[in-house]
Amino acid sequence: LGIGAGMALDRAAAIDVGGFDPMMGPGSEFPSADDREIAVRFLLADRHVLSVDHPVVTHHGHRAAGAATRALSKRDHLALGGMFAKFLRVAPMRSLGHLFRFLLRSAGRAVGDSVRLRRPAGVGKLVWTIVGVGRGLRRPIDTQRVVFYDTVTEDHGGTSE
User: Fold this and answer.
1) Torsions phi, psi of 18, nearest 5?
2) Which distant-in-sequence residues (6+ apart) come within 8 Å of 151 by Cβ?
3) Are 132 and 77 spatial neighbours (Cβ–Cβ below 8 Å)?
4) Which of 100, 94, 85, 93 has its CA nearest to residue 141?
5) Phi and psi of 148, rounded to 5°?
6) Closest Cα to residue 34, out of 47, 18, 57, 48?
7) How big is the CA angle at 93 (ends 87 and 95), to the nearest 5 degrees?
8) 3: which residues sit within 8 A by CB, 6+ positions away?
9) pTM, two decimal places
10) Chunked in runs of 10, what are the mean pLDDT values of the chain (161 residues)?
C-alpha cells in the first residue's frame, strides 16, 4: 500500500477522481490512509500511479515503543479498514481479494507468533482494520466521487449508496 511521504499529484487528475476524501486523513473519522485511498481511486479510474525512489523523505527521530506506537497503529488500521470498506461498496470484485489478503497477512503473523510461543503481534492491527471496515460500511458514500459523506456538515440528498 505504500505511503504518501513525498507524494505529488496532478491537480486536475485528482479533481477528476473526486479530490481528497474529507473523511479520510488527519482530523477525520478515518484519520489516516488519505494518500493510499486517493491512489486507489486513480487506479480504479484507469489512471496511472507511479512509485519512484526519489524524492527521498527523511524522518528525524523515532517513536518509542508502547502507547504512542499502539495509538498510531490503531489510527492507521482503522483508516485502512474504512478505505477497504469504501472500495468494497463501489468495486467489490476488484476489492475483496485485497481485503482478504491484508487480513490474512495480519492474522498469519499473530498465529505464527502463537505457534512459536511468542506474544502474538498484529492482533490489534487486525481488530482495528475490521472495526474500520464496519464503520466504513455504515457510512454513506457519494458513489460518483467515491468519497464518504460528512454527515455532520453535508446534506447528501439521497444520492449515496
Assistant:
1) 105, 0
2) 139, 140
3) yes
4) 85
5) -70, 145
6) 18
7) 35
8) 35, 36
9) 0.84
10) 78 94 94 93 91 78 79 93 95 92 89 83 89 96 90 55 50
Q: Per DSSP, which regions of the chain are E strands?
A: 141-142, 147-148
Residue 25 is which amino acid?
G
Q: Supply the DSSP string of 64-98, one letter for each residue.
A: PTTHHHHHHHHHHHHHHHHHHHHHHHH-HHHHHHH
Amino acid at residue number 49 = V
* Residue 47 grid cell: 489512471
80, amino acid identity: L
Q: Is the separation of the CB atoms in 90 and 143 below 8 Å?
A: yes
